[in-house]
Amino acid sequence: MAVVRETKLPGVGVRHEFTTEDGDDIGVLVHHDGRREILVYDSDDPDKCSSVVALSAADTRTVSELLGASQVTEAVTAVQQEIEGLAIEWIELTAASPAAGATIGDGMYRTKTGSSIVAVIRDGESIPAPGPEFPMSAGDVIVAVGTVDGLAAMREIIRR
Amino acid sequence: MLFAAGSSEVALAFVEIGALVLGLALLSRVAGRVGLTAVPLYLIAGLAIGEGGIVSLRVSRDFFEIAAEIGVLLLLFALGLEYSDSELRDGLKTGIRPGLVDMALNAVPGVALGLILGWDPLAAVLLGGVTWISSSGVISKALSDFGRLGFRETPAVLNLLVIEDLAMAVYLPVVAALIVGGTMLATVTSVAIALVTVAIILLAALRYGRRISNLVAGGSDETFLLTVFGITLLVAGVAQQLEVSGAIGAFLVGLALSGRAEDRANQLISPLRDLFAATFFLFFSFQIDPADLVDAAIPALVLAVVTSLTKVATGWYAAGRVGAAPKGRMRAGTVLIARGEFSIVIAALGSSLLNGPDLGALAASYVLITAIIGPVAAKFADEIPIPTRLMRRAPQPALK
């Protein structure tokens, strides 16, 4: 998955952007009131958007439906918006990670960090709510929920 | 008072108020058409009805006077409300340096001109405030109208507005206390009281904002509107009694609200603010003597040119920090040129000073000029030639 850069726009909302595999910059601006804008950056002047499409909440659902958005991410984002201080993190398992090849229970992540693994994304498919016996392997992306500190601790353990 | 007077007088008052407010509506419509803020047009309208203007108010002056006072309170309340506590925190973390550059480049020319004109130092400091603070109203409208919210330089611009907002939290109470004046000791005491109050409220808003806000956030729209309006006026009145300036009280109430209370206040108070703020701008220039305005024209023009260039430099610097290329930096600079509502509020604070009338006239013509050239310059920013020396840095790819 590409690196999504997040920028806060005070008084407006949050902008997420990333570079596609073809090298185009695209982004989504999420307004505080829930409206969204799709941003396509200009290739000559990368600071500028060559086109901007405004989406209502209903339009957003339609577009994400068309693109086949991961249901898990949607749900988790909704939870995050409701609970102040909760953060989500996507952590990719490298072959060197001690977590690759072990089960979620083995890692004792919740005990150690207070953060929970709520989904695992494998080969583009998301597996929601994996149990403690779930074996993880290199290349998996785990989706974890917790406090910012807890997630940092989890990243530390998994990336070690 | 007005309503106790004879019925023909009441009728006349209604006609005057109604006609004026309708006139303002027309101006706001014109401003919307051409993509400008209505503030400069309101100021012109105020001149037209003022001393020596084309029409004059006969019975509704009292009404406009008090409505204008409420307008300032609501403007500052909304300024305090504008950003959430986390946005203020982030602003403090990342925006200090651009904020200082902003202040140094834009407040200094104002102060300098004030001193050159031979004003007392306090009036000069107020003129510095007038030139310092960009109009967040004009700028956020311009950014959204031009579809530039997603542009890379935009966060730099918005963060600068947050910092200016925070800077006002310190600047306004201090100058307000200085204006009240008195003996050296009394002045120092009132400045200290003002600063401590601001610090406590700011800290409480950042720490316990949510809890404080939950106390008032409930109830029907009606209850909420009355509660917030009541608190704002009450705190402002008490602040005025303590000689801290009512406007600061209202500002602090706005700062203290966050979360759901903030959202609701934004929704419910905004229409009320627009109504009263329009009368404030009207009344502000109503009090200006057109003769003073003629005297102020040249200094205002010079000041507008100088501080437009310094705002461009500020935006250039701030946008450079977020990795924007020269064109983006030029867009950020030009959009910041517009001064507006708060420059007028600052000038109004000094109305009691010896140089108050000069300050008012200068500020009004200055805002007229910058509020018009700002959005126009921003609109055509991409066509402004940038010296090749500054273009050396090619546009960077997005990933840094």
Give the tally of β-strands of chain B. Answer: 0
Return residue spans of chain A where pLDDT drops below 50 for at least 5 consecutive residues. none
- Strands of chain A, total number: 9
Helix content of chain A: 25-40%
- Number of helical stretches of at least 4 residues of chain A: 5
Sequence of secondary-structure elements of chain A: EEEEEHHEHHEEEH
Task: Write structural notes for this entry.
The complex is a heterodimer of chains A (160) and B (400). With 160 residues, chain A is an alpha+beta fold. Helix content of chain A is 28%, strand content 34%. Chain A has 5 helices and 9 strands, in the order βββββααβααβββα. Chain A has helices at residues 57-67, 71-82, 104-107, 109-113, 148-159, and strands at residues 5-9, 13-19, 25-31, 36-41, 49-55, 87-92, 116-122, 125-128, 141-146. In chain A, strand 7 (116-122) and strand 8 (125-128) form a beta hairpin. Chain A is elongated. The two termini of chain A are 21 Å apart. Chain B is mainly alpha-helical. Chain B is built from 17 helices and no strands. Chain B has helices spanning 7-34, 39-49, 61-81, 85-94, 96-116, 121-132, 136-145, 154-180, 184-217, 221-241, 246-256, 259-286, 290-321, 326-335, 341-349, 356-379, 388-391. In chain B, helix 6 runs antiparallel to helix 8 (154-180), helix 8 (154-180) packs across helix 9 and helix 8 crosses helix 13 (290-321). The N and C termini of chain B lie far apart (65 Å). The A-B interface holds A 3, 5, 7-12, 15, 17, 19, 25, 27, 29, 37, 39, 41, 44-49, 52, 84 and B 82-83, 87, 90-91, 136, 140, 147-155, 158-159, 161-162, 210, 324-325, 327-328, 331, 382, 395-399.
